[in-house]
Amino acid sequence: MEPLVNRVAKSGLITIDLERYYPKEETAVFDLKDYLFKGLVLREKDFREVVKNHDWSQYRNKVLLVHCSTDAIIPVWAYMLVATAAAPFAIEVFQGTQEEYLKLAFSKKLETINVEEFADKRIVIKGCSNKPVPPSAYAELSRKLQPVVRSIMYGEPCSTVPIFKKKVT
User: What is the pTM of this model?
Assistant: First the structure.
């Protein structure tokens, strides 16, 4: 009987797990809907009082996500007031939702990848993760790798979906 051979290990496939690029910083949310008059309007005087009396220290060492989860028109100055009040405590103040923040955070991290280290390699972009990796990260990584790699696949090394294969000339 012949010994078992791990064909995946011998295949030369390189697996990239996008979960590695998930932001490590904890996030907190400041939802402006909680400060709307009658659920519709942000009144400047009242909101300035909220900003003045709010405990901003609770956002220490966190990324603060500032948005409004209801369909209200929020003046730009409201985001500015929150950002300036939270800045001494928060690592970062981001205007947008968790999903929007993740898209930007992944985009920033993917910019730092040196694609040349993957030149002429066969790449599998891992499909399953325990954290929410935005689809935009998969698209961005594929776009970035395509000019240099031999092939891109999606999934797990034992079960992949072909995405791109360099044409042999």
Answer: 0.85
